[in-house]
Amino acid sequence: MRAAAGGSRGGPAGVPARLILAGVPARLHLAGVPARGRLAAAVVMAAGLIAAGGMAAWADDDPASPAAVKRLLDGARDDLGAGRLSAARSKLVEAAAGLDAIFGEEKPPAAARMLLGRAGALCDELELQGGDSAGIDLPEPPKAADRKPSDRKGADAAPKGRGRSGPAARRPGGGTAAEGTVSFATQIAPLLVRHCGGCHVGGRRGDFQFTSYASLLDSGMVQKGAGADSRLVEVIRTGDMPRGGGKVSAEELEVLRTWIDEGAACDTDPAAALPGAPAPAAAPAPVKVAAVKLEPGEVSFAFQVAPVLLEHCGGCHDAMQPDGNLSMVSLESLLRGGANGAPAVAGEGAASLLVRKLLGVDIDGQRMPLGKKPLPDDVVDTIRTWIDQGMKLDLLSGDTPLATVAAAGRARSLSHDDLRAARFEAADDVWRRSIADEAPTEVVRGDLRVLGNLGPERLGRLADTAAAALGDVAEAVASSDAPPIKGGVVLLAFAKPYDYSAFWENILGDERPKGLVHSAGVWGDVVYAALVAPETDSPAALADARASLVEELGAAAFLARGAPGWFATAAGRAIAVRAVPKSALAKAARSDAAQRLERLRRPESIVAGEASAADTAAVGGAFLAAASGGGSRFKAIASRLDEGMGFDEAFAAVYQAAPAAAFDAWRAKEWKRGGSPGR
Fold first, then answer.
1. Taking the model in full, what pTM does it have?
2. Number of C-alpha atoms within 13 angstroms, CB side, residue 444?
3. Residue 9 DSSP one-character state
4. How far apart (Å, rounded) are the C-alpha atoms in residues 179 and 188?
5. How far apart are alpha carbons 481 and 471 in whole angstroms?
6. What Cα–Cα distance (Å) separates residue 142 from each residue in 146, 176, 260, 275?
7. Residue 443: CB atoms within 10 Å
8. CB under 8 Å to 326, separation ≥6 — which residues?
9. For residue 337, what are the CA distances in angstroms to 176, 354, 370?
10. CATH 3.40.30: does it fit domain 415-560?
11. Three-state secondary structure call for residue 433
């Protein structure tokens, strides 16, 4: 955890009167602040402290003085505001060195904590904008426990049971709680079980349950390093919890708050069940389903069955506490069954529970869908026929969400023009969800729709580059005059990295991976590529942008055809390196692949879809570039996917081996040649 924020105030005769903010981490002050406002919030926070007299007079000629560090941080802030990431990073490196020297003093000035907090916030902003904060080593401020007793107010008034002395608590896994810190195993867990166990360990009162340390942390009730602001402490402090008597004492609450302030560490097995937790239910037998090519007349799960299940069953049988423990988020989760067993048996449509429930025949309980009109007979007949035909999956994979499978089914059934109209219209919703308060500029280039928060001229030049990149992709994957992506593709162009981060947070429900500035995917009916727009329109910048666009549009072309993410990502990189050989991406590809392959602990994670996007693009791209020769195999596999062949079958037909076997053979060959992939 980075620095704590604080400040100092000039007192009489220049003696600084300390005004430390209780050791609260800098990031805590920004909790709940939207990504786009974090830098501004950090500046306002620091400005408020300084305005209150938070910066004492220091010698300006001392590079390790608070004043010198403040100037560096001010400069870094201005550089970040202007998008000068390299300049900002250089200043932060110098500021970190100055702070390290300041905190090396016997009594660091209180102002140093405020500066440390600002530095941490600026490092976060640098990462948010796509910069690299590696090597910016901010010091840790001394903790209260590290000071002499005479320097610690109330040092002897530690909460009972805190364990400032005596043996450290052992954890079953062999680790220990650090001496002088609160133990989860011996202090926090018993406290929580005693006061909360009846409702929230053994039960799920108020839709909240934690059965282990790990599930408590996952609940969001504990904010590491921020005891006073954690929801768990708040509901106890206000008297809202626990209900029904047995109040938590002030002393116990202080122990809990201290544990969280110290980082909410775990000195036991994080997954170990707390006393009173229910025994875990037996895991259902795993079910794996791969897509196959349908015979004429067979029912399409993607187009005819998945949309029905999604519309009429998804509300009750979702991922969170599904009725009857039957989840219908994917075909595999459906086939695993629930409390009443498997809902369908291949070849036995009329006897399957799913069909009987839909018809209301020979069942216990009520007819489905619950609380809705019964499904039309022809719809139930279609589901029964699908079961009779073996419950085949015709698109994507068995663990793909039904919404994505249904969208792929629509994509296959609609014409190119109709699908393009639907896709381009659906893209507006993607943008609104990403950046709700900023209407986009729009440019259309044939089968490419570009939305972005750039000026019209700048967006137009980027659209021209993207159209050329889509042409490169067409040459690599499309046969004859067929479009590279049926229904076209949407490009989302963001002016700043924090806009791109908002897209990840609001559309993909995740934080943007560090350093990632372009990607591709499928969201409902929308096949997209997304990127942070280049800062300039110089020939070199546009060449690099074209390579990035070829990579992501190439990935999108295979994602639209139902290929798994690892193959799409790797194929996009291989196509880009061949199409734009003089780009920075292409020039660095060979060495990047070699370095990443050497560092991978499990190289097989590439084709298993378990590696990072960066490793998959570099190593997987080198693998496919070598395995695909001149690139004709990309057209061959795209053609087979267009014909409805499953990916595994298509890959084996084109590459004469399963993905894992082909990858292992390539890797063995490369290491034998000296470990330089893609040479």
1. 0.58
2. 9
3. E
4. 16
5. 12
6. 6, 21, 18, 36
7. 22
8. 317, 334, 337, 338, 339, 340, 343
9. 42, 10, 18
10. yes
11. helix
Distance CA 143, CA 141 (A): 6
Render pLDDT for 202-220 as a digit per residue (tens, 0 to 9). Answer: 777 766 888 899 889 888 8
Q: What is the DSSP pairing of strand 489-494 with strand 526-532?
A: parallel
Numbers of helices and strands, H then E, in the chain: 26, 7
Domain boundaries, the chain: 4-142, 159-277, 301-410, 415-560, 563-679
pLDDT in tens, 399-422: 888 988 898 888 888 999 999 999
Cβ contacts of 283 within 8 Å, gap of 6 or more: none
78 three-class SS: helix
Residue 251: count other Cβ atoms within 10 Å of its Cβ: 11
For 333-390, write each residue's pLDDT tens digit: 899 888 788 899 999 999 999 999 999 998 877 899 888 899 999 999 999 999 999 9
Is 359 within 8 Å of 387 (Cβ atoms)? no
As beta bridge partners, residue 528 has 490, 521
* DSSP 8-state symbol, 281: P
- Parallel, antiparallel, or unpaired: how do β-strands 526-532 and 518-523 relate? antiparallel
Q: What is the DSSP string of 365-419?
A: S--SSTTSPPPPHHHHHHHHHHHHTT----SSBTTSBHHHHHHHHHHHHS-HHHH
Query: What letter would DSSP give residue 290?
Result: B
Tokens of 133: 């904060």
Tell me which H or E stretch contains 665: helix 659-672
Residue with the two structure tokens 């560490």: 265
Q: Are strands 16-25 and 448-452 parallel, antiparallel or unpaired?
A: unpaired
At position 300, the amino acid (one-letter code) is: S
Q: How far apart are CA 567 and CA 559, in angstroms?
A: 9
Question: What amino acid occupies position 597?
Answer: L
Rounded Cα–Cα distance for residues 40 and 87 (Å): 19
CA distances from 72 to 64, 69, 100, 424 (A): 11, 5, 14, 46
Q: What are phi and psi of 435, to 5 degrees?
A: -135, 90
Determine the residue type at 527: V
What distances in angstroms separate CA 83 from CA 89, 442, 513, one per listed residue? Answer: 11, 24, 19
